[in-house]
Each structure stands twice: as structure tokens, then as C-alpha cells.
Queue: 2 jobs
Job 1
Amino acid sequence: MTIRPAWALVLLSCTGCFSVDLYAPHGANVYLISAEKPVKVRRDLRTWYVVWGLVRLDNTMPDTVIAREQLTEVRVITVDTVPDALLGILYNVLIPIGLANQAMTIEGNRAAPTPVGTTIPANPPDTPPTRSPPGSPATGPAPPPPD
Amino acid sequence: MAVAAATPANRPAPARAVLLFLTLLTTGCGTVHFDVPEGARVKLMEIDAPASVRVERTCWYALWGAKPLGDNHTASMIAENHLAEVRLHNQYSASDVIINTFTSIVSFSRRRIIVEGNTAAGATQ
């Protein structure tokens, strides 16, 4: 039995696998929000895969956008649209190179800005002042604390 | 009488139509919402943070992904498992591909939502 190349390509185009992972950037406190909560930031993102979805091409996941936009609240919608379908046909059938893509929308809010008038101490409260009082002799580095 | 083999140039029109139709079938859509219940405060975990709970749900769609047949939000999964911090995945694996190859003929397709996390008692600070 002979399988024609075009039919084989259709079968290959069926083998697209992918995964979209939502996690926080390292060191960031990010909270998920509900579908109803109003948001101020909305970014559309498209991530690409090769070998019919087996390998991420650009490794662009939502954490990249979360870190770049400094979001502290976020929700994500993964969505496939008609343009995505056309791209799938283009790169898996017409030009069979196994390129797949996944679109997603990242919505969220940034941290509230510090209120005007709030003073931010230059040093932590328990840090001793580094400037010598007037009239005191010049001092070198602080001696090590006693054991 | 010799019969010439079918080439892309002289392939019968019905064969090309079926090929295009099957191609369109493989491009099913499907929307997944990564969100939490209203009023809940759920932290997003880092990629390598340990998780004690792992929940998986298969989400089915009709009309090639246009119409979800069930809940395609993660909010209910988070609420059912009382999770205080989570990491979320939308997966379209080889098994989904094989199943969708047959079910998409009648417009049905599926995706999987995976929620990993910790309850309030086991949440990392």
C-alpha cells in the first residue's frame, strides 16, 4: 500500500503537540485574578514551536511578559483563532516544515505606585549612620563586632 | 491502454477537496482560561517550586474548538482543591492528537488542563 506524500503530510500535521505553562518569574510575587476583575494591562503573545510542536522555538511563556510588564496580578487566556489555523495550514501543509504556534492573551495589573509623600528610608532602621559627627576624628573601617 | 499516474497537477478535484477538508479538521481551536474564583487570593508559583497537588481535567470542544462542552476555566479546579498557590498548564499531547484525529471528523476536539499547587497548609512562603 502506498501512502501519497500529501496524505502523509496531513497525518504529520496531526502530530503537533505543545504545552503552555503559566508560572511566576523567579523572585516575583504574582497573584492570579478572576475572569471578572478589571485589568489595566493586556498583551497578546504568540509562541512558536518546531518539529510539529515538540520543541519550543522561542521559549516565550507568560512569565516573560509578567516580568517585563512587572505585573503583580495576572490571568491568561490561551486561544486559537482563524489566523492561527491558516498559519498551521501554511507551515504544516503548504510549506511542511512543522512550525506550530499558540496564541495567548495575558491580562493583569501592576503594583500600585507608592503614595506621594511617603518617605523611603535610605538605610534600614537598624543600620547605624555612616557619616561621622562633626569634630570627631577621622575613622577607618568599622572594627569587627566582638565574638 | 496505459493509464497515467495521478500527479498534483492532474489530481481529481474531489481528492484535493478531501485533503483540504482533512487539513482544516486538524486545525481545531480551543480556548482555556487561567483564572481563579472571584475574591480568591491565589499565588502563582515559580517553575521549580514543589507542588503537593496535581489535578488534571480534559476539556472537550465542539465545532472544532469554537464551543466548549464543559468548564474551560481553572477557577473551579482551584476552588475544589482549596489551593492557595498554583502553577498551570494547557497541554496538547500525543494522545490528544491521536484522539482528535478521529473525533475532529465530527467536529469534537479536546485539550487538557493541568493544575499543580499547594493548599493553604502546605503553601511555601
Job 2
Amino acid sequence: MKMMVNLKINNIDVTVPENTTILDAAKAYNISIPTLCYYPDLRINSDCRICSVEIVGKKGLSTSCSTIVQEGMQVKTHTPRVINARKTITELLLANHDADCTACAKNMNCELQKLANVLGIDENRFERVLEVRPIDDHNPSLLRNPNRCIKCGRCIDVCRNIQGVNVLEPLNRGHEIIISPPFGKYLTDEFCTFCGQCSSVCPVGAIIEKDETAAVWNVLHDPQKHVIVQVAPAIRVSLGEELGQKAGTIVTGKLVSALKLLGFTKVFDTDFTADLTIIEEGNELIKRITTGGVLPMITSCCPGWINFAETYYPEILDHLSSCKSPQQMFGALAKTYYAQKENIDPATIFVVSIMPCTAKKYEAKRPEMGSTENNLDVDVVLTTREIGKMLRQMGVEFENLPETEFDEPFGKTTGAAAIFGTTGGVMEAALRTVYEIVNKKPLESLDFMEVRGMEGIKEASVNLGGKIVKVAVAHTLANAKKIAEQIKNNESPYAFIEVMCCPGGCIGGGGQSYGTTSKTRKDRLASLYTVDAAMPLRKSHENPDINKLYADFLGSPLAKLSHELLHTKYKAKHRHQ
Amino acid sequence: MTLESMIQKYPASPEYLVEALRDYQMAKNDHSVTESEIVKIAKYFNVTESKVCSVVSFYSFLSEKPKGRYVIRICRDVPCFVNKSESILKTLETRLGIKPGETTPDGLFTLEYTGCLGQCDHAPAFRINDMTYVDLTPDKVKAILSEYREEKS
Amino acid sequence: MIEKKIISKRFDKIDPYSIADYIATGGYKSLAKAMAGQRINILSEVEKSRLRGRGGAGFPVAIKMMALAKEAALVKYIVCNADEGEPGNFKDRAIMEKDPHSILEGMIITAYATRATKGYIYIRCEYDKPIEIMRHAVEEARKNHFLGQKIDKIDFDFDIEIRLGAGSYVCGEEFALLESIEGKTGRTRVKPPFPTSVGLFGKPTEINNVETFANIPVIIGMGGDEFAKIGTKSSTGTKLLSLSGNVNNKGVYEIPFGVPIKTVIDELGGGVPDSRALKMVQLGGACGPIIPRYLLDMIIDFDRFDEFESKTGSGAIIVMDDRCDIFDILLRNVTFFKHESCGKCAPCREGHNQLERLLRKFVDRKATITDLISIESLARVMHQTSLCGLGQTSPTSIISTLRYFRDDYIDRLESLEV
């Protein structure tokens, strides 16, 4: 039984459970105390001091995000003293900030702007003190602008504590602080995996995804180009948020219509190649199990995880499946199978891919992901945020759009493919297929509940041909690290492991809408399982179009052409050897 | 003192990172750590390179930037200031030909400001490497600098 | 005779390298007395003494000790803050250099009373001599079984490890100090929780200043009630003062609380040299208020210092004669804090830069009335919203001079037009 605490906020009687912060208590009584560095689900840094309030009897001001309510406390949230303090601090931040808002990608979506607006700041009493530092534009996924950083510490928190990678730390002290990779270096694949979680939590424009919308606008109006788009599983339950809808709203049909409106010639579903991935990877797993291949085998569809393994655990690269990700398999097929089928010159095909992910931008540009350096399989990756921006730029009235189906020949997909976007989804999809192939009988239930949910590492056991095989599912790089350590020390009890680098899997990707919280992740996750349950086909190996693809073009899983187009190699990055 | 021997002196626990770094840099002629040394240190203490870099850049006595053989750290706070520390600073600047933050071209002396050294009862004061000099006068300073120059040659 | 040498009674009278000297002058007797009785008695005596922390904050020590004693944890720490980085302070240096064992005895008694399992002394790395002497003292204490296992043959194990800083004033702040011992940057933590519940390595920890620990054996020796008779109602016992600046006899002096500042400067300090006039005095260090001559009759007392909206009870007195320009002094103070700020919280990290700029305008006689309003407002906001003591107390000198030397600010305005 939770104890209740009685206090007064602005002379209003407030009763909340013990251990509630003043911030949450005020919220429960309809007062939103302004905050800046605060972010739900992340550690309370109490850095910005914006949420300061007066507590009667206490000297100075106290931050409401970090102060727990006490019996009889009297809190004042908006006295002139408090308002002046908040304004002063905000002005101090603005004086050391590149406040050229209209030239910033976060314009109208910036928490510092919102705060200045809410506080009613109409002048800055302080002299501009910004010492301009170089912008870091040295990787394909993320753009770092230290002149916009307000040192809130969220990026450090997410990279260090949730991802366990710790690329970013404050260098120097006092006003000379710069949040930076080691040695003041640029953000590159020397340390960074490009998971983009930092960009997802940054309140301002200090770290954002590399914007490639201009390239896409241009190519959409290039009559020489055949522009097609593929849409990741997670997008169908996420894109709505960019256009004013609730997290988890299933917008599959509308998003196809919207993309057509933008001008894409064909709108395809990455779910198709997700099904294909299951066939290839499932067969690869069976082969490894039966012929003494390297086990455990680990999934390879998450580019953030691949980057992490190459940089930090090169010794386990042999364990990775050699399968490309669905995005890349799609690109490869688009420029071969599709080109041939439709009789289009592959050099004119421009593949855009809509992903909830920033690491996919890096993945698409890997030199091995294309027939030649000038003809990469996937030409541009746009994040959920970027495609949302394009739709707003076009003024699309999303809610009123009709439902449209994905285009053929990649339109038929299964529920197994849809759940790729969740943590445990790839594992479940793979098990549905591998189980039935090995045991030569259908599953009683298609739902592998033990691999679902937000727990960091999940385990399950499956009976494959009489043998009990252990599998695991990990999400966030901090958990991936634990799995990798086990394998490195030859202590892994698993045969097959799914790793997703983002919390919750792709639905929690670094390219998703701003303001992602554990609640919105759960909502998106739940909706993908709803999509799965409602699909007529729920097992990848039952997808007739996949079978047709093999019959007409690839031959068979793991065969020569499949290997050439759908499999890849990894590169140990050997940072310091 | 090699990096290895320094490292062996401290248990491989992250808590000794700050002290080990200072100990090591004090023994080095250029009073700094290089990138490759940071990599080794990070590995030994089982912390990320990011962590080591943030620690090196935080503390005044740690540095990635090489310094002169003798680092002169002069206090510029009020108790020394009202006891004529400016005349000491001017003497140093004149004799060495450098300003705080700079190193003499021969790499012998680096001049820096430092926070109060806790020698206010014998102000003005400065430190050269790990020696503290108090009750300074311009003449004493000239003598000290000569001593160091002789020692080097 | 205004001095009262209790903590400093052994200064320059014993060889600090000799534990025998310490024992011969009554050393470690209080430890024996403490361990012969109940732990609760020690806590009771400290409570009766009403001892307040000697590092500057003046927090009642008994509260910390009892909070730590109450924690039912297997591992508990006692930490001695010997970082002494506050400009104008050197009394802890004196205690370490001249009577090192008094600190150890105080720590061991505290550890016994609270069932702490390990102690740390965090000394700033610039203090070479204290480091050497304290290291030697710890070794000697171990050899004589005052540290280690089964101290005094009782089931009480306690040892002390000496740890060094690396050049950071802010590591004198208790949480930043813990972070530094843990091998990290010296950035403070969000509080609560407080160290007695979650401290060093996440374990319950009590952190005290050097002088505070040195008082513990004294209290156990004479009894808490006797101790409380010394000093004033709000501030019991004695205070070691660091007297520096424009004064003839700079040094460390021990007085009972309640002595007027003027008496210390004139009688102990021998007044201002070179026949100059005393213009102002900064109390506590760079983080303290600057007061004019007419306030020097004020007695040295925690509650009186509290009236300056800050905690400045570390006992430093920096005397400044009439050659000193207020704004040069203020600028030096602010530059110091700007350089030492850890950068974690916005008001301190961004505020010092702006304070410095504003002060420069006053130095250059180019300030406007708006600047006057801004500097006052900014100083107050930093004082009220900064995350730790550094940002909270650095504007004190500005706030106090605005109160007591406001005319000087007005004199520096370029014009009286807005």
C-alpha cells in the first residue's frame, strides 16, 4: 500500500503517492513546470535548473525534477523570483548558442525555442559569447553541431547508460566544455555505431540525422530516373506520429498513398525482403546446426549492431549471419530481378528506403553493398523524421488519404515480416520457419511469447528435430555487449541470437519521431503484433511470391545467385592493433 | 618510468585512473599523455577511451598537449595578488619571454596560471613541477630560473 | 590572550613524523576512551558538543554521524576532505603538516562509532609536504595497531587510504570529491540522495573536513558538554583561522568562536603593513563576502556569517588595504570560479562568463545602469539555482559588495543614462 503525501503547490492542496517528484506532482494537478534537460526514461541530470521552484522555508530554489515531495511542503512554481531565474538561465543558454533558428533543422521542433516561447523571452540581457566551433560532417548518418549544444547531457546518458557504448563525453570543464568523441575527434565509425539514439533525444539541433530530403526531391523530378521506395516494417506503426497521430496508429495504406503523392513511381514493402531474409537466414542456421558450423549464429539485419560488432567485438564476426539486411536485399533485387523483370536499365533505378534508423544511412553506403561504387543498391535512406518532413513540405493531408496497397512484385508479405520491427520479431519469424522446416510439421501456436516484450535479454528453448535448442534476444547495445562477451569467452549457451541495437528494436530506432518514450515504444510494438495477427499469411516460407522469386530467379536459398546478391562479408575494424 | 611499470603500481580498478594518470605524466618530460598511451591506459583500467579523455581534459594537472620540461604554475588569486604576485608574473614573463599558456621555444619552461596553492601565509607563491616556492621576490625568481637552467645544462 | 590553542596545541611543539611524540602528548588516549565505552556514547558526546563542520558549510556533525551509524550496510566509508582549494585557506595544510595523527584519531573514533569499514583521506596533489607527512602517519598508525585489523584487540577493523587530487578546486565539494576518488571527473551529483545513504561507490559515507576530524578526539577527551562551553551558542569550540593578505603576521590562528574579526586582524595579525589603511576584508575565501571596515566588529560565528546569504565558516580572513581596487578583486575571484567550474549546470557554466564580462565593464569604467541591474540579477540567480556550492557561493563577493560598496559600482558607470 503506497503512502500518500499531502502538500501545497501554489496554495492548492495536492495529494500524491510518496516518492513522487514535485515535477510529477504538479503535472498531476495540471501544471506543467517548464523543463529542458529532463527527459522521461533517462536519468535525472538536474543540469539546466530551469524547473527550479520555491519551497517555503528553504533557501535558494530547488529543482522540481529531482526533489521528492514531503508532507506539508509548500511549493511555489511561478513566483516572479522563479520566473526571473528561468528567464535568466534561458538567456544565458541563448547567449552561447547558434540561435539562427530559421536556418536550423530543428526549427519549430526545438525544445529551447519552445522554452523561450513559454517563458515569454523577448530580449536577451546578455552579450553573445559563442565561440564558433567546426561542424562535424564526417559520417553518412549524423551531423554534429557543437554551436547548438546546450550541454543537457541527454546524448551522453543515452550513449553511455542505455547503449553502453560511451562515444560521447564532455571534454574540458566549465564553459569550455564540448560534448565530443574521444580525443576531440570527429564522429566516425572509429567509435560510433550510428544508432542515432543521441539524435533522438537531443532537444536542439546539436546532433541530427544527415538530411537527404533535398536529394530525394531532386531525383523525384528527374525524368531520367525510375524512383522507387521501400518501406521498413516499423514505419507503418510510426509514421502517423509525424503527422499528428498517436503512437502505434496503423497507417500502412495511407502511407503508400502519401508516398505516391510525393511522386515515387513504385512503393514497395521491405517486409517482402524480410520474408526473404528469413528463408536465407533460416536455412543458414539449419546448415550451421547440422554441419557443425559456427554457433551461436547472430542476426545481421541491424546495422548499428553490425557496426558495434565490427568495432568492438571483431573476434565474434564469424558468428554473424552472412545475410544482408532486408533493406539491402531489397536494393540488390531492385537493381537485378526487378530491373530485368520490368526491363528497366538498372543505372536509372533510384532506390529510396524509409527507415526508422540512422545507421541504415551508413549501411547503404558500404562499398560492398552495390555492384559498383557508383551504383549502390540503396541510393538514399530517409528516416521517419525526414519523410515526415517531406510530407509536411508537400502539405499532404495525411488523415484524409485513401488506403492503397503496396506495389507488385514485392507486395505480398507475411506477419512474420511485419514483426521484424520489434525486439524478438526476427527471432519469432525465424522460429516459425525453422521449426516447421526441421520438424516437418506445423506449429501449434505461431506466437512465441517468451521472445516478446521489453526485457533486455530474453531466452527461449525450441525443440528442433528432437534437440532442445536455446535461443536469445537482446536489445540495446548494452545488452548486445553482454551477449558478445559471453560468446568471446566461449560461454554462450545459445544456438541462435537476435540482436537489435535500439531499445524495443526498430520501433525505437534513432530515426523515429522526437519525443519517443517507453510508452510510445510499447504502443508501436503492440501495433506491429496486431498487424501480424491480422495478416492472412504469418510464416515467411508460405509467402508464394518468395517461392516464385526463388523459382524464377534466385534458384534456391544459399545457392550461388542468392549468395552473390543476398549475402555479405564483415570487416574487423581493429582500432588499436 | 615506463607506462607498464606505472600501470603495475596501481590496481586495475577504474578508481585509480586519475592518480595513475597524474603520476605518469609527472614522470614524463613533456607532462602529457598521448593518444596511444590513453588507449593502453583505458584497456588496463577497463574504462572507455572516452572516459579517459574526459578525465585528462578535466583536471588541471593532466594534459594531452605536451608541455615544457618545467611547468611553472603561478597563483593569480587574491591573497597572492595583494601580496604583489603581479611583479612575480612580470618577472617570469620578461625572463622567459612568454605569457601564461605558452612554452619557451627551447621547450624548457611552460608558464601557467593555477588556483590558490594554499600558501597564502607565504605569498606570493608558485610551483615548478612538484616543488612549491614561497615568499617570492623578483630577485628570488631570477635565481630560481637560473638554477633550473643550470640543472638542465 | 585571545588565542585558544586546542586543535593547534601541538603545532611546532612535536615532531610531526613521530607518533611517539603524539602519544606522549595525550595522543590516541581519546581513541582508547572511546573504544572502552559504547558506540552510542561517542555519538552522544558529539551531539552534546554541537560541533559544526569546519570546512565552510557548518553542518552539525552529529547529524551526519548518527545518519551513518543508522545505516545497516556491510560497507561504510569515512572520508576526510583535505582538498583545501579555497583561496585564502591553509589551516588544513597546517594541521596535516604539524599534527597529522589528530586527524587519524578523529577518523578512527568516527569509524568506530558509526561502524565504518574503511577511510579515505583526499588530499590535493599540490600539498606535497602534507601528503608525505600523512602517508608517514598512516604507516606509523598501522605499525602501532591504531589502524588495521582488530584495533585495540576489539573486533573492529579499519584502515585508511590516502588518495590524491589532480588539480581541481571543485573536487573539494563533497560529491565531486567522491567522484574523483572513484576515478572520474569531479562533477557533483544530483542530491538527494545524500552521502550518508548513497556515497562513495554507492555506499553510506560520511565526509568531514580535516579540522572537523581533529576536533573529535578533543570532544571525546574533554566531554561534549565542556566543549560546548567554548565559543558561542550557535558555534561551539574553536576555529582555526587562515589570516592572509595585507596583514603583518600572516598565518594560522586558533580562537574560540565569538572573537571579533578586528581583534584577530589587529592583535594577532599585527594590523596592516606599510602604514596603509584597511579597506575591506573577504571572509571565508574567494567564495565569501567582502565586508567594509565598519563591520569588522562582527564576531566570528556561523550564524553571523549566515547573514551574508552563504556558508563561509571555513575561517579565512583576507585583509585588503586601500591600494586594492574592488573590481580587480571581484574579477580575480570570478575568473577563479570560471576556470574551476565543472560545467555541469547551466547557471554556473554560462553565468561566470557573463559575470566576468560585466565586471570587466566596471573595471574599464564602461558599465551602464542596465549592467548594474544585470550583474545583481545574475549573481542572485546563480546563487539560488546553481547545482552545487561553487556556483551558489561564487557570486557572494558580488552580492556583498553591491550591498556594502554600492557607491563604488555607481562611480564606475560610464553615465547615469539608461
